[in-house]
Amino acid sequence: MKTILSEQPAAADRAVPDQGVVPSAQDRDAALGNDSQIAAELVRRHRPHAVNHLQTGVAFALWVLTALVIALVPPTDAYLVKGEAQALGLAVILAALLGALWLASRVWDTASRWLGAWSPWWIATAVVTLAWETLTAKTGVLSPPYVPSPGQIIAEGWADRTLLARSVGNSLLLLAVGIVIGGLAGLGTGLWMGWSKRAGYWLDPIVKYIGPVPTLAWIPIVFIAFPNSFSAAVFLVALTVWFPMAVTTSAGIRGVSREYFDVCQTLGASSRFLIFKVSLPAALPNIFTGVFMALPTAFVTLTIAETLGVNSGLGWYINWKKGWSAYPSMYAAIALMVIICGSLLTAELAVRNRVLSWQKDLTRW
């Protein structure tokens, strides 16, 4: 991380004449605000993305080309090709969406910024989709069941949409319950460890020795100790979330400057105020780091638990379809899992950036 304030004192010294008087804070702020070099650097580093018409045009042309290849190039005779209509529909929708956003970017700043940030990804996705379609459905170089065409994955997933939707709902329910329980437990444990030396003495060894134990090692014990597979899976997810939350929260609480507590206690602050108004807000960056670390590991634990013991959810669905060699349906479930996990991480980062917006002017992420 590179801070942008390191260049400011030199610029301020150039802007404020040396008259033997130490400038006040207001004078320094005014000098910094009027310095053209600093203003130009801030604009360069914080300038929002704008649409690149060349990149957007290339992305639009590639998606149109993908739709034309799917529609006009005859499929291979090596095997029965399925799902071409679904693949064509998706390519047309994406091309139309991209074209509409491109036109709207001339008058809509949000569309312009979005295309400026994501046009390279539209290009890369179109290239991969076009190559995938050509090598599978059009030439037969790669063939099912291990490498189905994009349209076949879409068609198989849509045909099994009821069971897939039920599996997604069960996985999200299990994940939500486990994250809430593990997150609250980890937050409370980390707060207690960071605030109390006696609690830290007893809990530190437990966290250090139990937390890093792999999930697979707990499965034989957990599925025997709990009355049903759902509660056992919830415990495994909660345990996975508890460890990073406890460690990062404890580190954040212990890292709060002692001067903050001294000032507040001088003004008559109670222990409750010090905990909830000083310690927790100051530890928020560490807490959000713990959430970011916990989400992917929770999803991994969820998949393992569903694969080995829970008879529902995406992990169970993937294992079941693999047993029947129904690879297109299995790939559809994996794609849904990728989308869900990525969306959760994106939402977490958006919340963190919103809550910790005060850090952005000091540090480049």
From TrEMBL:
PANTHER family: ABC TRANSPORTER PERMEASE PROTEIN MJ0413-RELATED, ALKANE SULFONATE ABC TRANSPORTER-RELATED, MEMBRANE SUBUNIT
Organism listed in the record: Propionibacterium ruminifibrarum
GO biological process: transmembrane transport
Family: Belongs to the binding-protein-dependent transport system permease family.
Localization, UniProt: Cell membrane
Pfam families associated with the record: BPD_transp_1
Gene Ontology terms: cellular component: plasma membrane
Topology within the bilayer: Multi-pass membrane protein
Keywords tagged on the record: Cell membrane, Membrane, Transmembrane, Transmembrane helix, Transport
UniProt protein name: Binding-protein-dependent transport system inner membrane component
Residues that span the membrane, as ranges: 54-73, 85-103, 115-132, 172-194, 206-226, 232-253, 274-295, 330-351
Domain ABC transmembrane type-1: 168-349
